[in-house]
Amino acid sequence: MMLGFLLVRAGVDVIVIEKHADFFRDFRGDTIHPSTLENIHELGLLDEFLKRPHQEARQIGAQFGDTSLTVADFSHLPTRCKFIAFMPQWDFLDFVASHARQRKTFRLLMETEATDLIEDGGRVTGVRAKTGGGEIEIRAKLIVAADGRHSTIREKSKLEVVDLGAPMDVLWLRISKRPDDPAQSFGRIVAGRIFIMIDRGDYWQCAFVIAKGSFVGIQERGLAAFQKDIAALVPNLSDRVQELADWDQVKLLTVEVDRLKRWHRPGLLCIGDAAHAMSPIGGVGINLAIQDAVAAANILAGPLGLGRANDMDLQRVQDRRERPTRVTQAFQVFAQKRFIARILGARQTLSLPLPLRLLRRWPYLRRIPARFIGLGFRPEHVKTPDIRSTLKP
Predict the structure, then answer these.
(1) What are phi and psi of 61, to 5 degrees?
(2) In a domain, 357, yes or no
(3) Degrees to nearest 5, angle at CA 104 with 102 and 105
(4) How many domains does the chain have?
(5) What's the Cα-to-Cα distance from 87 to each of 32, 56, 57, rounded to whole Å?
(6) Cα(108)–Cα(98) distance, rounded to whole angstroms?
(7) Fewer CB within 10 Å: C terminus or N terminus of the chain?
(8) Do 272 and 290 fall into the same domain?
(9) How many Å apart are CA 276 and CA 113, to the nearest integer?
């Protein structure tokens, strides 16, 4: 959606397809990072955007055993918005779509599911899609796969995937919030358990990190035992865990960390999770996806405006975004193996890890995780023109 909006501003004909009837999905990546907020400012839409209901996190805290500390402090970021905004992803998508629809060369096709690629002489020339009225074909100079970690288009493209592995999965759930609850989002870490609470106004969006493939065993123990686990981790929620009345309220995120060796074929480009599925560590997957979109628009708007986008253009996108992806995934894989797996496998009280001891002793170091989470390793800036603003009346 973001790439489509940036390209249509530059005068490119764009069709975005969405297989569902609306954007409403629970427990999607709902974080709008400072780098994305900076991009929205560059589009001249920040004030309007921030009028939509959202919560703001200026710090991220954690409780490791009995020790509480601030892990990241966004107040020093070189951006206009020194916070992470929490906003339902459907609101974000609706906001972008509402502005894209104002352009004559933009079309959004809902209830349209891409099912296969159309090829001609080894070049991708379109997609086949399933709609309520039957199958259709959509032809285009360039197809962009932005359909997530289980990308149908990536699978059909036969592009090679490198699996980096993940020792964990995540259970998403929500529990009501009360006025006397803690004022900021935080994580609770004890031997064998990691529980994260994100302030969403009138409720907590919670992530229960579990060992890879252990959800079936958790279900077999029963919902009451699961409720007790949460109450033991966060005692002030003990009178609310009964809100989890059945397992349908607990959503499993199967964590995968992978990336494509090559992000493109003639006529096809993959971005976001379709190109590189990220671990939920730091919540940076949505940030990288948006940065991919901005970089792709900056590089491809000119060639597409001329009616072409060759392999060299597509490789420039990968060259621009591959290094920050690799560095981010390397950090995530290191954290998974060195810390997450150790915590989940522990049965005795853990000592505070060295990185957290350093953050506690020298608050200045909190800027490092803040930059990693808030900006990433190569924040992108909008450079595409808005042709409507350059046209004479």
Answers:
(1) -110, 165
(2) no
(3) 115
(4) 2
(5) 7, 9, 11
(6) 10
(7) C
(8) yes
(9) 21
Total residues found in the chain within this entry: 393
Give the sign of the dihedral formed by CA 220, CA 281, CA 364, CA 205: negative
> SS3 for 18?
coil
Whether the Cβ atoms of residue 278 and residue 257 lie closer than 8 Å to each other = yes
Sheet of strand 84-86: strand arrangement? 31-32, 84-86, 55-57
According to the model, what pLDDT value does residue 81 have? 97
- 121, 238: one domain: no
Name the residue with tokens 């405006």.
305
pLDDT at 120: 95
180-218 pLDDT, tens digit per residue, is 887 666 788 888 889 998 888 888 989 999 999 999 999
> Does the reported pTM lie above 0.90?
yes
- What is the rounded CA–CA span in Å between residue 39 and residue 46? 9
Q: Where is the domain boundary, 200, 227, 253?
A: 253
Running along the chain, 393 residues long, what does each successive block of 10 average in pLDDT?
97 95 72 96 98 92 86 95 92 95 95 96 96 95 94 96 93 91 79 88 90 95 95 90 94 93 98 95 91 98 92 98 96 92 86 88 94 95 88 52
Alpha helices in the chain (DSSP H): 2-9, 34-42, 46-49, 89-100, 152-157, 215-221, 223-233, 285-305, 311-335, 341-345, 354-361, 367-374, 387-390
Q: What are the E-state strand segments in 123-242?
A: 123-131, 134-139, 143-145, 161-163, 168-176, 186-190, 193-199, 203-211
Does some domain include residue 64?
A: no
Judge whether 352 lies within some domain.
no
